[in-house]
Amino acid sequence: MVKFLRENPYARMVLTALRIWIGVEWIRASLEKVGSPVWTGSQAGVGVSGFLRGAIAQSTGAHPTVEGWYADFIRDVALPHAKIFSLVVSFGELLVGVALVIGCFTTFAALMGVCMNMAYLLAGTSSTNPNMLIWEMFLLIAGYNAAYLGLDYFIIPWVRRRFRRSQNTLNDSSGHNPKLFA
């Protein structure tokens, strides 16, 4: 299965469609926030504060949906810095979405999508998060094959050449091979 996802040209086409769909979903979610004054405008932090307070409320009772340690994190770290979290969430969703749609640093974008989906799930929401998390895992497993039909086709070889040059420079100057990027 892993080999199929990583190497098959037919899987590449399906993964490209999946990557673009997930990217569009992230962009749609971000546009609701980026254009809202309570997320990114003069009242930034108000929108995320309501969400975070709701998560804390779900951490009590006989069957809490939010773990106590995560509620502590929200109360002690996220809520006091709600404005920063509001901006990071809003623009993070937008950046992940754009990167996935155009296929630029796809694996990293999918990983950041996984991190955001996990954070939302830990905060007690479900919505599309479980589905997106599963599909993003397919993109991570597929690696470069999910990005082949995108800007990564041009970017990744360039980055690899740059790292090889850097490694060769290190080899020449120090006399040994540190194998940083091997």
Automatic annotation (TrEMBL):
<protein>
    <submittedName>
        <fullName>DoxX family protein</fullName>
    </submittedName>
</protein>
<dbReference type="GO" id="GO:0016020">
    <property type="term" value="C:membrane"/>
</dbReference>
<keyword id="KW-1133">Transmembrane helix</keyword>
<keyword id="KW-0812">Transmembrane</keyword>
<dbReference type="InterPro" id="IPR032808">
    <property type="entry name" value="DoxX"/>
</dbReference>
<dbReference type="Pfam" id="PF07681">
    <property type="entry name" value="DoxX"/>
</dbReference>
<keyword id="KW-0472">Membrane</keyword>
